[in-house]
Amino acid sequence: MTLNQKLTHCVSIGITTKNRWQDLQTTLTKIAEFGLEELPILIFDDGSDQPCSFDLSVLPFKDISLKRFTESKGLITRRNQLAQAIQTKYYLSLDDDSYPVSGSLQNAVEFAESRLDLLCLSFPIYNPILGHYQNHSLQQQPYQVRFFVGCGHLLHRENFLQLKGYREELIHQGEEMEIAARAFQEGYYCYHFPNFEIHHTNSNISRNWWRMDFYGSRNQVLWNDWYVPSQLELIKQSRTFVSRVSQSFKVRRIGSIQGEMIGIRETYTYKNYRQKMSLELFKRWEGLPRS
């Protein structure tokens, strides 16, 4: 039995996509070139305008499937559905413009198996177009972090589902930090594994910058309301507001300010999600590297 055949029993690759068939084709080609063609791959298309522009069957994968949805419900919803549909213990989640380029998935899984408290493994992520790391390693050995980066990570599927997955009310952005905070309070943690590098080409196709500004800002306000200790929340929310206003002036878009206003209004709507950390626990959280 080959190394990848052993991995097929415990790891599946899940990819969400929408209107980026060329990016997806490149990603799948790179995954095969990296040597992961024996892993099961499940792709969920969140309501693309056009059908897939290439033939999946010509790629060298042993088990690959594409499920298309006619209605778009967002990538957070689709990632939850992928976690439910995948049958293996671990779910290697990749964006349609992200793929592994170096290191060992086998070693990453071996480390994951050594941690009974694992929610997710974060990886170093490099953008070859911009020429810099979006998520860099601080140490040569694995270490605990606050949360993980969405474009490439390894989830412990059962623990993820036990936490009931991502909050779909977030709509777009920030879901990784939200579930990581919930997990942190339940004794499940995120770790950074430096020896498995992901390239993220960060395609701008289908990106809506106003939407990213709006939900990034709105969801940060909600996160502060849900998890920051009461004695620190006003300070945290004020700093968030100043940061978002500054960003809006810098990029000349008002989405961040609009997101702030809506987020403040919706804190009451989602007050049942409040699970504020104690001051001691929050200091532990803040003392960890980000991702």
UniProtKB/TrEMBL annotation:
InterPro entries: Glyco_trans_2-like (IPR001173), Glycosyltransf_2 (IPR050834), Nucleotide-diphossugar_trans (IPR029044). GO terms for molecular function: transferase activity. Pfam families: Glycos_transf_2. Keywords: Plasmid, Transferase. It comes from the Bacteria. Residues 12-143 form the Glycosyltransferase 2-like domain. This is Glycosyl transferase family 2. The lineage of its organism: Bacteria, Bacillati, Cyanobacteriota, Cyanophyceae, Oscillatoriophycideae.
